[in-house]
Amino acid sequence: MARPEKIRLGELLVRQKLLSETQLQLALEEQKKSGRKLGRFLVENGFITEDQIADAVARQLNIPFIHLKSYSIKPDTTRLLPEMQARRFRAIILEDRGDSVFVGMSDPTDLFVYDEIARVVKKNIELAVVNENALLQTIDRIYRKTGEITDLARELEQDLGDSYVDFGLGTSPGSEDAPVVKLLQSVFDDATQVRASDIHIEPQQDALHIRFRIDGVLNLQTRADIKIAPALALRLKLMSGLDISEKRLPQDGRFAIKVKQQSIDVRISTMPTQYGESVVMRLLNQGGNTLDLNAIGMPPAMLARFRAILKRPNGLILVTGPTGSGKTTTLYGALSELNSPELKVITVEDPVEYRLPGINQVQVNDKIELDFARVLRAALRQDPDVVLVGEMRDQETAQIGMRAAMTGHLVLSTLHTNDAASTPIRLMDMGVPRYMVATSIQAVLAQRLVRIICDSCNEAYTPAPAEHLWLKSELGDAVDTNNYQHGKGCTNCNHTGFNGRIGVYEMLEITNAVAEAANQPDPAVFLHAAEQQMAGNTLRRHAINLVTAGKTTVAEAMRISNQFDE
Fold first, then answer.
1. SS3 helix, strand, coil % of the chain, rounded to 5?
2. Residue 361 to residue 389: CA distance in whole angstroms
3. CB-facing half-sphere around the CA of 207: CA atoms within 13 A
4. What are the tens digits of pLDDT across the range 393-442?
5. pLDDT at 132
6. Average pLDDT of the chain?
7. Number of C-beta neighbours around residue 105 at 10 A
8. Which of 59, 140, 53, 138 is nearest to 104 (CA)?
9. pLDDT at residue 170, as a whole number
10. Are the C-beta atoms of 201 and 213 separated by less than 8 Å?
11. Per-residue confidence (pLDDT) for residue 304, from 0 to 100
12. Residue 566: its pLDDT value, please?
C-alpha cells in the first residue's frame, strides 16, 4: 500500500458536510489560543464525534474504518508491535497477512508513524482508521502483564535462591528495582487494566496462586513458585505498616498507590494458612465514578422515590444484601447527593472505603474499644444532620441509630438480610422494640449485582431447558416472545462474555399501612403488607427485566435469585 497523503481535517469535514464553515472558523480560532489538536477540540466541544471524524478520514483515504469493540483481535498478532510503540504511535496491528500487516491507526495520515511501524515490523503496511479512545482501551486489554508477572515471579525465585525468606528485601535504598517490587507493580498494573476489585495471593502446597476478582468472579492469573510467597507478604506488610515479625495472627491495614495516573486505595488483610500467609487486597479507585446514583442501575421510578425519601429530614434508610452486593456504593452515592455546606454529615465506618470531601468520616477501631455504638453516641453529640452507620451489627448500635432517626436525624446504614421484607423482622429478632422499628424506618433497599453482557460480542441464543423452565415459571406464556442474549467472548471482555456489573433492586417503603402491620405480633401480617406495598417489584422481577432487555443472561438472573430463595 502507498504511503498516505496528508489531509486538512477541517476542510475535509466541511466538504463532507459534517461541519459548517462557521464552526470550523470558531474551532480554528480556539485552536490557535489553546494549541490543542483540531480534532480533539471539535470532539470535546460536541461539534462532532470521534467515530464521525474517523469515518470521514477513511472515506477520503479510501481505507476501512474499523470498530475495534466488535473486531476479533489475536493478542499474539497485536504484540508484533511492542506496547511502547503502540501507545506512542496510537496504532495497533489487527492482522498478520504474511507479506504485510493490517494496521489500525487513529491518524493514518501521520507519515512518520507509518514509516516507523514499517521499520519495526519489517513488512508492508495496509492501513485502517480506528477510534482513538477505543484504540487505547484495546491496547490496555491486549498488552496485559500476565506474561510479565510470570517472568518476574521466576526472576524473584532465582533472586531468593534456596532461601524462603529475604528479610532485607524492599527495605534497602534502591529497592525499587528489586524483583519483588517490580512483580507487585506489574500485578497492580494488570489488576487495574482488567478492573479487578480484589487481588488474592494464596500459598498452596506446591505453588503460589495469584487471582483477581473481576465482576465478582475470581480468575487465576498466574502460578508461581511457593518460595516467593514470604517475600511478597513481607513487602506488602512493609507498605501497609503492619508488623512484619507477626505471622501467626491475622492483620489488617491499608496503603495508597498510583497506577497509570489513578490513585488507588488498597485495603489489605493477611491471614496465616497451612502453607503460609494468605494476602487479600481490595482495590478502591479514589478517582472512579463510583458515587453516582444515576449509574448504579436502579429503575427510574424507584430511584425517584429513593431520592424523595433521602430529602426527608429524619428517619432510617437501610440498604441490605450480602457482602459484595454494592451496598457501600449505593450509600456513598446517596451521601454525595446529600453532601452540601448546609448539612453536617458524619459517617461511622469499618473501614472507611471512600474519602469524601466535606464529610466527617470516623474509622471504628475495636482494639481501643472504639466500636460502632461508642462512635455513634459521640457522633450524635456533634450536631449532625445526616449520619451513616457502616453496619448495624448488634442490638445496641441498631437502637442508638433508630433513636437518632426518631429525634430529627437522617440515618443511613446497612444490614445483612436476604430481601427488603425480612429486614424489619431481623431487627426485631435482634431485640429492637417493635414500635421503634415501625416508627423509625423510612425505607429498606435490598440489592444484588449481576454481570452485564459484553456489548462487543453479545448475540442471540436459545436458553437451555432448565433456564427455559425457570423463565416459564416467572413469565408464563410470554417466555417465548423475548429475544435472549449472551456474550460469546472476545478480547474486549477477556473472553468471559461479560463486561461490568449492574445493580438489581427492590425497595420497601414503610407507609402507614406497613408500619401498622409491623406493630402486629404476627410476622405474617407484616410480610403480607410488605408484599402489597412492593407490588411485585422484587429482586427477581428486576433481574428478569434485565434478561428480557438483553442486558444480562438467564444464568445470571438465576444465580442471584438462588441467593434469596428459601
1. 45, 25, 35
2. 10
3. 11
4. 888 889 999 999 998 999 999 998 889 999 999 999 999 998 898 899 99
5. 86
6. 85
7. 25
8. 138
9. 40
10. no
11. 95
12. 44
Nearest to 299 by CA among 444, 33, 436, 504: 504
Of 44, 41, 51, which is closest to residue 18 (Cα–Cα)? 51
- Matching residue, cell 487465576: 220
Q: How far apart are CA 353 and CA 479, in angstroms?
A: 42
Residue 227's CB is within 10 A of a number of other CB atoms, namely 19
| Among 335, 312, 340, CA closest to 410 | 312
C-alpha cell at 244: 512484619
| Residue 161 falls in which region: left (phi positive, over 0), alpha (psi -120 to 50) or beta | left
The list of the chain residues with pLDDT below 50 reads 162-176, 566
H or E stretch covering 318: strand 315-320
Q: How far apart are CA 136 and CA 132, in angstroms?
A: 6
Q: Which residues face 95 on adjacent strands? A: 102
473-507 as b/e: b if 16+ CB within 10 A: ebeeeebeebebbbbeebbbbbebbbbebbbbbbb
Spatial contact of 432 and 392, defined as CB atoms under 8 Å apart? no
Q: Which residue has the cell 448475540?
A: 459
Angstrom distances, CA of residue 156 to CA of 169, 171, 207, 211, 295: 11, 16, 14, 18, 42
Residue 179 corresponds to which cell in the numbers above?
Answer: 524483583
> Torsions phi, psi of 509, nearest 5?
-90, 130
pLDDT for 492 equals 76
In the numeric block, the cell 483515504 is attached to 61
Q: Are 163 and 229 contacting, i.e. CB atoms less than 8 angstroms apart?
A: no
